[in-house]
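Dear colleague,

Thank you for sharing your sequence with our group. We've completed the structure prediction you requested, and as agreed, I am returning the results in plain text so they can be pasted directly into your records. Please verify that the sequence below matches your submission; if there's any discrepancy, let me know and we will rerun it promptly.
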Amino acid sequence: MEFIKNIREKTPLIHFITNYVTVNDVANAALAIGASPIMTDEVNDAPDMQNICNALVINPGTLNENTVKAMIESGKRANKLGHVVVLDPCGAGATPYRNKVIAELMANVKFDCIKGNISEIKALANVSQSTKGVDADVSDNVTRENMFDVFKMAKELSQKTGAIIAITGPIDVIASDKAAYITDNGCKEMRAITGTGCMTAGVIAASLVANPSDKLKACVAGVIAVGISGERALSYAKGTGSLHIGLIDELSNLDDIKLEVGAKIERFDI
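Please find the predicted structure tokens below.
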């Protein structure tokens, strides 16, 4: 499939209700991959914004009561309209209130993809509470030794929610209730840039809108797109600042040939 070409041709309009730490990075990443971002979290405005959009990305990284209401009402509207909806459960497991909000979101909104680090996904699956702020606990990292246990957890969460589960980290796992992919794209230096996970959620949403015939592969393409862009940027970056800028540059220059040649993926039936 021509994943990137399809995004650039369709130019999906994506509504982000995301955290204010990374909102600019998310917008720039969406623009770079060929999507069009719009941000509003006012409860009297956000649901109506879905009427003109193709997708919604929800990230409860910086919470307040008004934003939570906007997330739920926008999610319901997006579901009613048949739009793509992606959840980035930022910081899941960190505090009781955050857990309550994310549980409320999952109870009221149907998600096409849930993307988080391994600690966040474990919290959603009620397996662990070992998150470290918004970062994964290193003891949770996916490895070749534990990946089949992670597949099982992701499969069960996918069955429960109906969503593709995308777990990002040193090794990425993207799974449905039938199959899982692992990817080795990206670089450890990307962890020193705020917002790479948030950017990934937006790229996944764009890919889902533009490539609806295979949701699992569309999510895989979104994850790999950011990983490959980070790898390519690292080859000339002088530090995390230039890596940050280079990541956006590489996303803007990415095409399907680079995606196919650079992808480091394996597929497993689960």
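Summary note from our side: Strands lie at 13-17, 36-39, 55-58, 84-87, 113-117, 164-168, 172-175, 179-183, 265-269.

Kind regards,
the structure core
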